[in-house]
Every structure is written in C-alpha cells, then in structure tokens.
Amino acid sequence: MPQTTVHLMRHGEVHNPEGILYGRLPGYHLSERGHEMAARVAKHFAGEVSESTPAGVTPVRRDITHVIASPLQRAQETATPIAAAFGLELGTDERLIEAENYFEGKTFGVGDGSLRHPRHWPRLVNPWRPSWGEPYKKQVERMRAAIEDARKLAEGHEVVLVSHQLPVWITRSSYEGRPYFHDPRKRECSLASVTSLHFDGDRFVGLEYSEPVADLLPGASKVAGA
C-alpha cells in the first residue's frame, strides 16, 4: 500500500500588539519573527541547514508534492515559502480555517478582558461543545475531510496543510482517540509546529510531533538546536 504523510502545520507568530483574539478576522499577518519561522520551516522541509538544525544532524529533503493552506493571511504567509522551496503552487482549502469563536475581536481574560462582563458568561456554560464557538465535532469533520482529500492528492508522497492551533489539536485528538474537551494550556501545538500524520493506503498508522523552530518560540533559548 502507498505510504503517505500529511503534515499539519500551525502558522507562525502573528503581529498582534493589542492582544486581540483575532480568530477569522482579516488583516492579521505574520510578525517579523513569524516570517522567520516560516522561512525556517521551509528550509526544514527542503533539507537545508538552518540556524535551528542541531549540530551533527544532516537534514533530509521531504517528498512534498502539495502545499495547501487556510485562506487566512497568517496561514497563507506561513505556507508561501514552503511552496516556493518545492516549486509548487500554493493551494487554499476553506476547511483548514480557524475555528469560529464568539470572543473574536475581543480581549479575553478576567482583568480588563471579556470575562469581567456578565453578559459574556452564558457563552462559557458548556466547555464540552464548546458553547463559545464552533463545535469540536464540526471542526474535526471539516479538518479530516480536508486531510483525506489531501492524502488522496499526494498518495505515496507528502503534503503540507497549514492551519491553526485549535483545529490541529482537536483533529490530532480525534486520531489518537482522546476526548475533545481539554485544557488549552496543555495543547502540544506550538507556533510553526508540525503534526505529521502517517497513512498506509487509507489507514492511519501513527503520528509524530515536531517543533522545527523551537529556538524561536517566545521564552525559548536562542541556542541553535535547542
């Protein structure tokens, strides 16, 4: 059976000095560091040495035949250098978009954020659905449909899908058989991280998680390979 890998990638860091929960709002682009993250991941997939390549490790060029991104600007900007590194046209899939969220456009927190206002509290009554946004099941359905189409498109090769933290994490949970309800602080899905889904034919056989730009994450050591 053909071996296919679907790389689910989260976009890079976004320029958001106001700390807005931007969700699907237009106009939110990568920060300077976010563009560096995107360039580094492109080198990672292309098998080129970068500042984050550990000493003594020889990068391997991946067999990527398609690169597809969410329509949101931050995802498109993250995917562009990856597509360019392989001489590919960047594809767009609406199903990879960020989850809908009632708090979109607002700051979110107890201090000066939305949670201090009682009018917002009814949106928090059901964390299992969740009541503040797009149902987890709906996110999984659209993401897995996009993944299946991408798997068929790149059968026997590899494909990169650039999406957003919550859809990627919830989709990973579905493949691993975990409950969708979770502590957002414990998601293993950092900026520009890659969750690689492996298929034998149409059968899911496992996944790997990696952080190609770990040294660029906020608070991380700047030592190459850290």
UniProtKB/TrEMBL annotation:
Q: Which SUPFAM superfamilies match?
A: Phosphoglycerate mutase-like
InterPro entries documented for this protein: His_Pase_superF_clade-1 (IPR013078), His_PPase_superfam (IPR029033), PGM_Phosphatase (IPR050275)
Q: Which Pfam families match?
A: His_Phos_1
Kindly list the GO molecular function terms attached to this UniProt entry: phosphatase activity
Check the record and name the SMART domains matching this protein. Answer: PGAM
Highest taxon of source = Bacteria
**A cellular component annotation (GO) from this entry:** cytoplasm
Protein's name according to its UniProt entry: Broad specificity phosphatase PhoE
Please name the source species: Flavimobilis soli
